[in-house]
């Protein structure tokens, strides 16, 4: 058997070669820190919305199967709660738990799933993407604010009502360059209209630029990510994100009677490395920044092996 021709190898190799190219560029300082921020804005504010809107503009809601989403979030929220209970209810515990369940669905997942499973697999993934951040980040924000309120009450400080905190978190997660174009694309699809060629072609070109640039930026970020310090905590986060979550999602999906491509996409999505949004939470709440930074780098580096293993297993199961 020609290993290079195996579909798992054929889809993973371009992904990790582009990340490696970005890592090299970062190490050699070909891209300045200021440029990384500008390129990230380009990806998130222009290229991703174009890709997401165009893909979902031809998808009809009645054809979507929402059971895989229920299976995924049952596992993810269950692991999040168990991790918080294990470490204790405080800001650090919540941020570390979020690091163990929040996948990099956009920067790595979209390109990988499209290469490996085609447009049908991509639509399944984007259905998850549309509410992934909305669900996990909103829950994490509310739990974090409750933890902060608990700490402040102990210090005699007043806090906003939990409903106000929940509504604010929900709005911030919904009005975002990832779920918003997905929802807009779905709404457009329900009209029965078709995008004119003069609009569709630029969106296609912008969307095709997303994959390579996003993966190179992942590599550049890794080159600037220190892996030292809090090794034990970092290993726990990586094991939770790369191995425990996909196992739980697989069991949950099996319990829901899900099989075939939806099962594979959900498990692979769960096996993706940690997403960068977790670091933003660590920064905002000024806790576990070193552990999350190291965890993000190690999770991405180890995904070369763990993600390959998960995809290979799912190719046999499927």
TrEMBL record:
Compartments in which it is found: Membrane
Keyword entries, A-Z: Cell membrane, Membrane, Transmembrane, Transmembrane helix, Transport
Membrane disposition: Multi-pass membrane protein
Membrane spanning residue stretches: 6-26, 38-57, 69-86, 93-113, 125-148, 180-199, 205-223, 235-257, 263-282, 294-317
GO process annotations (BP): transmembrane transport
Keyword Transport assigned: yes
UniProt GO cellular component terms: membrane
Pfam families for the chain: Mem_trans
Protein name: Auxin efflux carrier
Source species taxonomy: Bacteria, Pseudomonadati, Pseudomonadota, Betaproteobacteria, Burkholderiales
